[in-house]
Write a structure and sequence with these properties.
globular; mainly beta; Immunoglobulin-like; binds CU-O-CU linkage; 557 residues; six-stranded mixed beta sheet; 37 strands; seven-stranded mixed beta sheet; binds copper (II) ion
């Protein structure tokens, strides 16, 4: 049980840097964490022989083709299904996939042009899709109880489907034509007996509509089922979604084959090549949660990039734009680009979670927490042809120190540039604009008689209202953590105002949707609750913490 002594709300602002010293907890000791732990969580060990690093070519997720582009809307279909993939060379691994691949197919969208994705659930359990970073109406935001039930689903413990209540409640879903067996079910009982009368449950399929009325950036879509998000993502339910616009295209940043999406995720494999994960209920039907030893988070000993272990990619001696996502459940990375002869290449950050920065920021190393994205340009021009650049994780050890490598294959012309001004539309909210300041602690605690992770001392309950705010209001939120907690808000982007009572860090630049709180750290963020009214969420994006209660409702009225 974590405790941070002597920190009342009043004192919160003033104490800044002192917090790091007080957040020493029994939990962190139990999890084997050092004073400055690299990650919060415990690592699984794979049972199959692991391939050497930098041998497997880097895969690039295929870009999904729309089934229709008429009426100004791009329409896509994705079937969620089991598939056996070769993740490790020569090893067959059954996974849960979007469309048969891991990562799922990439959706390429244009700003202002709506996208509708029809998802079919061909998996053995309920699912729900969330577009992370999307400015999405609540009905399509993937609230954790808005489930799409699979064929023949019977709630293990008690019936969850409450028949045909109130057809009027389905009015927001009239775009769901063609739904196979959509019969207006309402109400959902959480796996731990929590009732959610507002849940909108469908059978087999659901349309998700994304207006794409937002800044261009790299988003990702992933499963968000209540209590089971972590194992579902681990099994493969994650894919990329990129928004572009003409302004960004005209900047001259590296593009085409010199723009690379990189989804980094750790996994572990058992001796039969199956994904290894410490679920209490491996069917993911009934009992949520992980074995006690992993309640701080699940780490794998294999680092995958775009679904391949420690891959290598051949590049020109030129600038490349790397669109990096940390899709790991709990693992943090501190990325560094080093040549084989020991030189470090700069990581020139041009964008954050929610799109372009105002101006580039140059980093020597770049920390990236679960769900964060960084848009960085790396210049291979000065690397010798035949030379190699490794991207390493300074927080890893042994095999988990390596991430991927680039092999510089040839000299080539490069007409790309990194403009000194990247964007002009970053919101610049000030404290004085805020109508409210709220405090939230992110800490270990008890939940349903067991171990949990709490926001403001309570575990997630879909039926409770936690934050109610008015559309258009600006608020400052002060977040404080015991161990690592990457905190994510749905719907909105925010700016980081401060850390430990001091100014934000260089990698906090731009517009974020996930902020990485480090052990004992307090940070302030500011945002405007803009876009749509409805029921949204904020939560820790350590996926195990999220499943163990570290989530809260955000109602915009
Ligand atoms: Cu990427 Cu609510 O999550
Ligand atoms: Cu999200
Ligand atoms: Cu957390």
């Amino acid at each position: 049980m974590a405790e941070t002594r002597g920190i009342g709300r009043r004192q919160f602002l003033g104490i800044g840097g002192a917090l790091g010293l007080t957040a020493v907890t029994g939990l962190t000791a139990a999890a084997g964490l050092a004073r400055h732990p690299a990650s919060t969580g415990d690592q699984l060990r794979s049972g199959v022989p692991l391939p050497p690093a930098f041998q497997v070519p880097l895969p690039l997720p295929s870009v999904l083709k729309p089934v229709s582009t008429s009426g100004g809307v791009d329409r896509y279909e994705i079937t969620q299904r089991e598939a056996t993939l070769e993740v490790l060379p020569g090893v067959k691994t059954p996974m849960w996939t979007y469309g048969g691949t891991f990562p799922g197919p990439t959706i390429e969208a244009r700003r202002g042009r709506p996208v509708t994705v029809t998802h079919h659930n061909g998996l053995p359990v309920p699912t729900v899709v969330h577009l992370h970073g999307g400015r999405t109406p609540a009905a399509s935001d993937g609230y954790p109880t808005d489930l799409v039930l699979p064929k023949n689903w019977r709630e293990p413990a008690s019936p969850i489907v409450h028949g045909m209540h109130g057809a009027h409640d389905m009015s927001g879903m009239d775009h769901m034509d063609g739904m196979d067996g959509m019969d207006g079910m309402q109400g959902m009982q959480g796996m731990q007996g929590m009732q959610d009368p507002k849940a909108v449950v469908t059978r087999l399929t659901r349309d998700y509509t994304f207006p794409m009325d937002q800044r261009p950036t790299l988003l990702w879509y992933h499963d968000h089922r209540m209590d089971f998000t972590a194992p579902a993502i681990w099994r493969g339910l994650a894919g990329l979604h990129i928004i572009r616009d003409d302004a960004e295209d005209s900047l001259g940043l590296p593009s085409g084959p010199r723009e690379l999406p990189l989804m980094i995720a750790d996994r572990a494999f058992d001796d039969n090549g199956n994904l290894h994960y410490p679920s209490l209920d491996p069917t993911l039907r009934d009992q949520p949660g992980v074995e006690e030893a992993f309640h701080a988070g699940v780490l794998g000993d294999v680092i995958l990039v775009n679904g391949a272990p420690w891959p290598v990619h051949e590049v020109d001696a030129a600038r490349y734009r790397l669109r990096v996502l940390n899709a790991s459940n709990a693992r943090h990375y501190d990325l560094e680009a080093v040549t084989d002869d020991g030189h470090r290449l700069d990581l020139v950050q041009v964008g954050a979670d929610q799109g372009l920065l105002a101006a580039p920021v140059t980093h020597r190393t770049l920390p990236i927490a679960p769900a964060e994205r960084y848009d960085v340009v790396v210049d291979f021009t000065k690397v010798q042809v035949g030379g190699r650049v490794r991207i390493v994780n300074r927080l890893g050890s042994g095999r988990t120190r390596d991430v991927l490598a680039f092999r510089v294959a040839r000299k080539a012309a490069d007409h790309s540039r990194i403009p000194r001004l990247l964007s002009h539309d970053l919101p610049n909210w000030r404290r004085a604009d805020a109508t409210r300041t709220r405090d939230f602690s992110f800490r270990a605690g008890r939940m349903h008689g067991g171990h949990g992770w709490l926001i403001g001392g309570v575990p997630f309950d879909p039926a409770r209202s936690d934050v109610t705010t008015r559309l258009g209001d600006v608020e400052v939120w002060r977040l404080i953590a015991d161990v690592h907690h990457p905190v994510h808000l749905h719907l909105v982007g925010f700016r980081v105002l401060s850390r430990r009572g001091r100014k934000a860090l260089p990698h906090d630049a731009g517009l974020k949707d996930t902020v990485s709180l480090r052990p004992g750290e307090a940070a302030e963020i500011i945002t405007r609750f803009d876009g749509y009214r409805g029921r949204y969420l904020f939560h820790c994006h350590n996926a195990e913490h999220e499943d163990m209660g570290m989530m809260a409702n955000l109602d915009i009225i």
